[in-house]
Amino acid sequence: MRWTVAITAAVFAAASAFASDPGDVGQIKTVRGTVHVERGAQRLAATPGMNIRQSDSLVTGADGAVGVTFLDNSLLSLGPGSTLAIDRYTFDSTTHAGQFDASLKKGTLAVVSGRMVKQSPDAMRVRTPSSVMGVRGTEFAVKVD
Amino acid sequence: MRAAHAGALAALTVLLGCQSAPPDLVVVLPGANGHTGTVVVERGSQRTVLDKPYASSASGSGSPAPAQLSEQEVRKTFGATLATMPERPAFFLLYFITGTDVLTDQSKGELGRMLAELKRRQAPDILVIGHTDRVGQDDQNDRLSLQRAERVKADLVSQGLPADRIRAAGRGEREPLVPTADGVDEPRNRRVEINVR
Fold this sequence. Notes:
heterodimer, A: 145 residues, twelve-stranded mixed sheet, globular, B: alpha+beta, 23% strand
């Protein structure tokens, strides 16, 4: 059973990239108000179904909020007036090993940790300008004024 | 002299203001599955372990001890953020009549409930994986498992779900839910698994 679930997860992770770029690590699911994805010099209007890559930044306007699902089933959402950088995201869908580093520059962030944190308790780190959060399998929220 | 002094003081204040990081607040939430995990907050040499529902730590407080917030306080600060959290990934199983791509009566009912759940989601990613029991040849079972998955995909598409967001795959008899000897007619292995996120 455990084996079946692991294989299912592997197939699912592989499949979720089927219509997209291998560099995609997550997907925007919910968008309210003004939300942009900053990718290098590009500034893209966020829409549900849009893929997210490592090194992207998510930026919400004063009326904005956004929710994203990642390959390992990590979930996160940003409230109004927020900026979050996806500094690093790797995930091996077979072993569930990975690393998820994100930085909240300002605003509010909520997180539901995913499979990689179940596999390795130090896999996810969230930074703010003054703190580093190590995530040991949980749901939590962060605000930077 | 006095003016120069005030100017220097103002410059110093601006400088300190620039150097000090904006304050932050971290709070652990009760998990949806009833389990609350742990967040370890590090600020320089200060370390705070948060492992109870609504335990929090604020960078400006100067204390490493966790502070307990109320659910109301958390809702006030994070309500709009939490309201935008994507739906949790979900998993469904549907079962088939032996040797066919026809759902059991019970699973036909389950399909309806599943459809409601899938339609509620924005931009769903749906993966349908077909399986067989261990009766019959491997190559026949590979075909049957894919046929089951494609049949369920077609049902979902006919109910209005977008075909380009549904992927069907067949795994034959390789991944039995209930391990059996070859040739065993095990109903729980004649299934499709539907993953959505």
